[in-house]
Amino acid sequence: MQSLRRITLLAIWIVCLLFNSAFAVSSNGNDDPGKAADAAPTPVEMICHPGKECYPKVFVPTTTFLPVEADQVIPAGLHVRLNIGSGGREAKLIDPNESEGTAVYVEREKKAEIQAGMEYSDLVVVPDQDIDQGSVLNAGLSSNETDSAPPVQHIPPEPDNYKPNPHLSNSDWETFHNAVAVLKESAPQAASLIEALRKLTELSHEPEYGVKLIEMTLQKLINIISSSDYAPSIRSSAAITLGNSLQNNAVALSRVRKLFGTATKDVVLHPLLVSLLKNQDKILNRRLMFSISRTVRIHNGKQDFVALDGLGTLEKVYTATNDLPLRGKIAAFLQDEFLDMEMREMEVKSGVKGGSQSVVKVGDDLSGWCEVLQNDLVERKNEEGTGDLDSEVKVLVTLKALKEKYGNGCKAMPELKGWLGGERVRVKKEDDDGDWIKVPLEEVEHAFFGATA
């Protein structure tokens, strides 16, 4: 009997326990409706277009770049870049460990504080510096923000034919950034600088790296090229890197003018010309000539070159050097940039957007070069195994173009006809397949003396 009573009490206790638990669950599920409404997330305002997925009105950033729709609102303080392949904007959260210049979104009401004369844009670049995460995220909130803010640079749309290379590997980018870091050191070790420049001379052929080099290291490259504190081999590598970065790279050419504006003439071209005039190292001068030939392709570069008496500088260098390959490079430069009408007409048609410029119409009188080039040719001996045929061809092609342009203003020297005949005989003996040299010889003879026999 007593045992039965214990079992009954235990059963009653279990039933009460279960009833209490059920009541507690029911009570939790019937909380105040007002409180439930307060806990609900705020609805996200969406933008919808026919035939297209909806997206948030306010861009939601992550740690990686995501495309920004044209009608999306970008929160202040994000890292924003222009995708030069699609033409659209991309944004992400600021990474304080990035060593390159960072594009930062500026609130619309703060645009009035951007430098006078600069086009208004949502996208500005903060030049290379250490970026504080907190200060960037609060960009546009302080009333005296511009008192200490670095200068900003407007980024216009890039040429349509430039697209990022999706095949560049992470290891190549790492190599690139490591080399740039060495280059930007205030006093890098010579061995480290040599190795860094060696890598950059190879990578700078890639347009995307070329643009980055111009943005991040142009001034440093110019400083190395123009300083006698560095060995000629280091200066040569810097000159090649600069030339490679600009070669056939309309975006990089445009970026130079965006960075320095009207100061490009004095900051970039002038140091290169002075270095060419003062330097005595043959290899370095050839590399300098290469970088100059690329730099004048910057918009208004030829006008700047003429204004700096670049033609006079080249004439002094040409007559002073006995390095025939350098003379050939100078002659080819004159032909390509000032005498080749087909190339100059293409530049006019392509316009500024392609990184080209209009024909130089003032101050580009090259008639004096007619005598300079003839003197060079007649001094070359008509002997087997002598001379430099590559540079000779370049001089002959340029001389013919000068004669065609200036006519009677480019008169033949007395020794020219005899030298041309002797050279034709020598070339025929040495190379029966040497049409590449025979043709320009015959063309120059025809231009100055009429039909050849």
Automatic annotation (TrEMBL):
<keyword id="KW-0811">Translocation</keyword>
<dbReference type="GO" id="GO:0005783">
    <property type="term" value="C:endoplasmic reticulum"/>
</dbReference>
<dbReference type="GO" id="GO:0000774">
    <property type="term" value="F:adenyl-nucleotide exchange factor activity"/>
</dbReference>
<dbReference type="InterPro" id="IPR011989">
    <property type="entry name" value="ARM-like"/>
</dbReference>
<comment type="similarity">
    <text>Belongs to the SIL1 family.</text>
</comment>
<dbReference type="GO" id="GO:0015031">
    <property type="term" value="P:protein transport"/>
</dbReference>
<keyword id="KW-0256">Endoplasmic reticulum</keyword>
<keyword id="KW-0653">Protein transport</keyword>
<keyword id="KW-0813">Transport</keyword>
<feature type="signal peptide">
    <location>
        <begin position="1"/>
        <end position="24"/>
    </location>
</feature>
<keyword id="KW-0732">Signal</keyword>
<dbReference type="InterPro" id="IPR031884">
    <property type="entry name" value="Sil1_fungi"/>
</dbReference>
<comment type="subunit">
    <text>Interacts with KAR2.</text>
</comment>
<dbReference type="InterPro" id="IPR016024">
    <property type="entry name" value="ARM-type_fold"/>
</dbReference>
<protein>
    <recommendedName>
        <fullName>Nucleotide exchange factor SIL1</fullName>
    </recommendedName>
</protein>
<dbReference type="Pfam" id="PF16782">
    <property type="entry name" value="SIL1"/>
</dbReference>
<feature type="region of interest" description="Disordered">
    <location>
        <begin position="135"/>
        <end position="157"/>
    </location>
</feature>
<dbReference type="InterPro" id="IPR050693">
    <property type="entry name" value="Hsp70_NEF-Inhibitors"/>
</dbReference>
